[in-house]
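Q: Hi! Curious about what 4Fe-4S ferredoxin looks like structurally. Here's the sequence.
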Amino acid sequence: MRKALIAYFTGTGNTWFLADCLAKELRDKSIQTDITALEHINKVDLSTCDLLGLGFPVYAGCIPYNVWGFVRRLKPVAGKRAFVFSTKAQATAGSESLLARLLILKGYRVLAARSFIAPSNETLLFGPEDVTRPEVRAKLERLRHRVPGFVERMLSGNGVIEKNNTFMLLSSILSGFSFYLSTGYVSNLLVTDDCTRCGLCEQICPAGNILSSLTRPRFRNRCVVCERCVSFCPEKAIVHPVTFVRTSLRYRVPGYTPPVLRKPTG
Ligand SMILES: Cc1cc2nc3c(=O)[nH]c(=O)nc-3n(C[C@H](O)[C@H](O)[C@H](O)COP(=O)(O)O)c2cc1C
Ligand code: SF4
Ligand code: SF4
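A: Let's find out. The predicted structure is below.
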């Protein structure tokens, strides 16, 4: 294996953190490895790598639908190697094996697919974890420590595809589809009067879901529910209207900066 490319989607940095650890590990194994956010994937020539790593955060036991869309648009290949990784707060269904199967349908040979526990970032229902707390930072460290074993097994041909059975796959699809149908209802977003019209949320939204942020941010109906705007708004002015826990806590991985994707409008 000569060259690897790791493409990841992240809302608040966990998957970026894991992707970075994986890239370092592969480089330590003398594999030239590039890493890219999914938002920049169009600028990358996928044909030059012979190992593709694809990472995502688990949403409702499934794959974020922008990641699903990316895989659907991938050009078919003949046996190129790939691996799948995800971050989750607690549990997933068969989202990793689902993504592995989608890649296999495109002609990839998937060496491994697994999920990794990371701190929770969601303000949608239960509230995120406090990244200033040592036990939460320890979760990120544990994530880092699981990488060498995962890479070692994968490269030695002993990688596994987790939860690769019909029940798990169907659970993941059903859960993800229900979540997709509910976006725009339970998981829509509101802007409070604390907004200073700084424009940042519109610049960093991966889905182009925010408009007019220089006058008053408005949301379209294509939110991935990645929590990026919620977590990075300097005024904490973006909230989910329906939650079990009202909290001013926001989660983002120290050192992670979202890409600036467009100019703000207003
Ligand atoms: C909308 C939403 C749904 C989520 N659903 C799940 C879930 O089903 N299972 C789980 O373990 N974690 C779930 N999480 C937590 C995230 O998967 C987890 O915190 C992830 O590491 C965030 O990654 P990121 O920082 O790369 O965006 C959810 C988070 C969000 C925002
Ligand atoms: S990032 Fe926050 S303060 Fe800035 S425009 Fe968006 S909602 Fe308003
Ligand atoms: S509106 Fe916010 S939560 Fe939705 S996709 Fe954009 S950045 Fe993510």
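A: A fun detail: Residues 134-155 form the longest helix (22 residues).
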